[in-house]
Recover the amino acids of this structure.
């Protein structure tokens, strides 16, 4: 079977699912676009009003800041966890995977309230520190960037771990043996084998966390400071509180565009590589 | 060629099947809405349990009309129902802000004033929605940490950082502006229209000590975990903390409150309008109100019902006639909410 015919066979099996997905996802999105340009009036007034408002600009720049920082931190932490998992024997790895997946399966809302208890002014961390240093310690760990990043990385790390681990496990052990026979040191092997060969997983993970953190709003609202308002919060405000749907749609389109700007190069790179 | 044909026929089949199935699904929903029932939205939780026990079940017993409950939809869903003409509920329970806003947008059926005993009501019924319960926003604290005299009890004191230093939690809602003006010494009857600049100046004075509560449960949890020293919360949220299973018991000051309310309205084009009218007038009967508000820590709109409540319940109720208490003007907010909320959010971010 050549690759073209297998692609055609895949297409036949994939088409019903794709058609249903397209039928469900595309019409509402088109309607959002339609509403954002004021229905049939075809005006960009809503975009103009949104883009010139300083509330929107502050929110957009904060959204990009939160997305960038939390994606980088999650990628770093997730890579370390995945690397450690890939070097464990299979049975141990299965047990450790449960520890990674347990928070992944827990409701974000519940985790946020738990972090408030852990990181709060009289929370577990500060209480332990106060006891250890025998003085009143009240580190500001929540309702600021620190608390926000703890919450975001906790939410995003499992999403990085899964694809990166898959990539790492797919690396043929013979490659490492060959490298070490040739006299490569640990660091050299890491940079010339592990990192390049894990890139498909890294990009898949990065794509997911960027998209998820661009749309995040519960964690920033509950663990972040007042400056950490996200575009999603603004969409919610216009959509649910003041029923200004054209504005909500215009912001959604901008958010969607931002996702595409970030996601398209990542997806394109993967498409070429795999 | 042959392959291509199979693919096309599969597509056609699926599309056809979807089209055939659609009316069956929609039809089933229509058939469920018979005229011996009425559908009302509810906030859920223990509030909903009390509503069933005190209002809906006795209503069904008396009239034979079955009451269906639908989860609280939000005004956005009501708007969607009006746009598509697929009205799935009859009676909407919502805050006075939502109800007044919906009234301006023409979402509600008009209500016959003869349905209600207006002189008996603390807040008079409107032409297309009626207030049935009130609740209070005020200062809350942990009485184990701050005894009598050590905590703020009015809004003036809440904004006084010298006498009562410490962190405060406030709901992230523009209702804080009314509070700030009361704290700045504006008399309750002179609050509207709001002097926004003055309100923001007053809020500036405590801004660095505020932890914003993004949702109502947080107004309680921030106090219970010791994250803040004092907070603005609601009487109906503080009372459950004093009961078994409520966690750290908190205290609430009735010395000065902002009183907000919930209203009932009938959706325009409601499938069971007659039954909806019956249910709303039943809701407003003093004996029904007394039964319901003995179960939930909110206050009845009926003055007669208020006298029928148990003394224990009355301890937790705001007094709307107290001169330094403010009753929120929902009609003011209908036009102003969007612009003021945007300014408020921008102010909180910087």
């Amino acid at each position: 079977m050549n690759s073209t015919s297998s692609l055609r066979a895949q297409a036949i099996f994939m088409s019903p699912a794709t058609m249903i997905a397209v039928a469900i996802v595309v019409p509402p999105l088109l309607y959002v676009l339609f509403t954002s340009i004021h229905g049939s009036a075809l005006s960009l007034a809503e975009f103009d009003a949104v883009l010139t408002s300083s509330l929107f600009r502050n929110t957009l720049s904060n959204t990009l800041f939160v997305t960038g920082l939390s994606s980088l931190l999650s990628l770093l932490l997730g890579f370390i966890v995945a690397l450690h998992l890939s070097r464990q024997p299979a049975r141990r790895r299965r047990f450790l995977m449960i520890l990674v997946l347990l928070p992944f399966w827990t409701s974000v809302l519940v985790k946020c309230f738990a972090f408030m208890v852990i990181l709060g002014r009289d929370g577990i961390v500060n209480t332990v520190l106060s006891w250890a240093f025998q003085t009143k310690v009240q580190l500001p760990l929540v309702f600021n960037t620190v608390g926000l990043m703890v919450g975001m990385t906790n939410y995003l790390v499992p999403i990085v771990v899964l694809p990166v681990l898959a990539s790492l496990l797919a690396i043929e052990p013979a490659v490492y043996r060959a490298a070490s026979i040739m006299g490569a040191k640990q660091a050299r092997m890491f940079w010339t084998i592990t990192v390049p060969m894990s890139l498909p997983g890294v990009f898949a993970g990065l794509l997911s966390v960027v998209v998820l953190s661009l749309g995040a709003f519960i964690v920033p609202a509950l663990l972040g400071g007042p400056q950490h308002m996200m575009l999603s919060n603004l969409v919610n405000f216009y959509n649910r509180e003041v029923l200004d749907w054209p504005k909500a749609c215009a912001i959604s389109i901008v958010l969607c565009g931002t996702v595409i700007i970030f996601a398209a190069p990542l997806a394109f790179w993967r498409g070429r590589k795999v | 060629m042959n392959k291509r044909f199979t693919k096309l026929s599969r597509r056609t089949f699926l599309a056809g099947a979807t089209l055939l199935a659609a009316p069956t699904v929609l039809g089933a929903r229509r058939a469920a809405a018979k005229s011996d029932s009425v559908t009302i939205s509810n906030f859920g939780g223990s509030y909903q349990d009390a509503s069933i026990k005190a209002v809906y079940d006795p209503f069904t017993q008396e009239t034979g009309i079955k009451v269906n409950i639908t989860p609280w939809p939000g005004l956005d869903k009501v708007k969607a129902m009006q746009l598509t003409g697929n009205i799935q509920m009859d009676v909407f329970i919502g805050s006075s802000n939502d109800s007044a806003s919906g009234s301006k947008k023409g979402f509600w059926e008009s209500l016959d004033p003869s349905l209600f005993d207006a002189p008996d009501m603390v807040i008079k019924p409107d032409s297309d929605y009626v207030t049935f319960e009130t609740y209070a926003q005020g200062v809350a604290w942990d009485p184990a940490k701050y005894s009598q005299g050590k905590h703020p009890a009015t809004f003036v004191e809440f904004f006084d950082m010298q006498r009562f230093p410490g962190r405060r939690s406030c709901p992230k809602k523009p209702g804080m502006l009314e509070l700030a003006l009361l704290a700045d010494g504006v008399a309750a009857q002179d609050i509207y229209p709001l002097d926004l600049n003055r309100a923001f100046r007053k809020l500036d004075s405590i801004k660095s000590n505020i932890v914003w509560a993004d949702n109502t449960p947080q107004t309680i949890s921030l106090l219970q975990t010791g994250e803040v020293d004092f907070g603005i919360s609601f009487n109906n949220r503080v009372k459950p903390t004093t009961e078994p299973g409520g966690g750290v018991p908190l205290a609430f000051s009735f010395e000065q409150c902002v009183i907000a309310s919930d209203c009932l309205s009938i959706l325009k084009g409601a499938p069971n309008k007659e039954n909806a009218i019956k249910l709303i007038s039943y809701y407003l009967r003093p004996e029904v109100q007394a039964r319901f508000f003995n179960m939930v820590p909110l206050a009845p709109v009926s003055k007669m019902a208020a006298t029928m409540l148990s003394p224990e319940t009355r301890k937790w109720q705001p007094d709307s006639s107290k001169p330094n208490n403010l009753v929120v003007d929902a009609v003011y907010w209908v036009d102003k909410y969007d612009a003021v909320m945007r300014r408020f959010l921008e102010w909180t971010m910087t």
In short: The first helix of chain A runs from residue 3 to 36. The two ends of chain A are 19 Å apart (CA to CA). Chain A touches chain B through 36 residues (CB under 8 Å).
